[in-house]
Amino acid sequence: MNHHASTGWRPLQPQTGPSRTLVRTSAAGPALSEMMNWRLAAVVSVSLAPLVACTAPHHHEGELSSAVMTSEVQARMAPMDALADLKAGNARFMAGHLTPRDYLSQADTTAEGQYPKAVVLSCLDSRVPPEVIFDQGIGDIFVGRIAGNFENVDMLGSLEFATAAAGTPLIVILGHSSCGAIKGAADGVELGNLTAMLDNLDPALAAARGRTSGDQSSKNPALIAAAVEANVAQTMADILERSDVIAGLVASGDVAIVGGVYDLGSGRVDWLEQ
């Protein structure tokens, strides 16, 4: 892993400044063979403005972009600037206008250091590649993936590295429609280490079940959709509660935490209220 500087980590200390209040929605609303069959839709509208494209400059047809994140660009980027950039990238992805990139050039340029604009905690699902759905290049974003996109001590340490050591201004918790991990937890799937892993999703399921009527298994699309969103909100809250480092950076305004749900069918990321 490349560090913030060749001499090692240089933790970012929280600066005094206006506190940022994050308003999170915790809206709450079978079987192992269905865990990876996910095709439902999310239901929140996506905001596409203001949009910026710090690493996706205008280019002529056939021209490849070799632009990368630099320390100077990262230092100027406020958390909401980074979010706007991701929203713009998702809009390009949905429109089929992905930025043509010279990946070998980007790899060479970033070999000695990385200055990402965001760290995305997402699900393991092979159909939810953050770099693609946000139209980002090499060195643009950190990505941590685990089935069910929840945090644990290892993920917290990774998020602290990304923000406090590497200077990333934005944390994104990204769930997705019809999540198989959520379905498995709803059905009480038991299989080796998967059983204990799915236990992490119980709080979100409990919240969803408290607000969703009808079948309480994965056969109920409304329950699963509610649990997916509740799990994103729960993970955001857990990060702030369990990491003093990140909580301090959020309080100072140096870092923001946002949550979104990716729709497998449309490619759209719908953002939770902030």
UniProtKB/TrEMBL annotation:
Q: Which cofactor does it need?
A: Zn(2+)
Residues given in the record as Zn(2+) binding sites: 123, 125, 176, 179
Stored InterPro entries: Carbonic_anhydrase, Carbonic_anhydrase_sf
Query: Highest taxon of the source?
Result: Bacteria
The kind of enzyme this is, by top-level EC class, is lyase
Record Gene3D superfamilies: Carbonic anhydrase
Copy out the cofactor comment: Binds 1 zinc ion per subunit.
Q: Which terms in the Gene Ontology molecular function aspect does this entry carry? A: carbonate dehydratase activity; zinc ion binding
The record ties this protein, via NCBIfam families, to: PRK15219.1 (NF011765)
Q: What is this protein called?
A: Carbonic anhydrase
Q: Which organism is it from?
A: Engelhardtia mirabilis
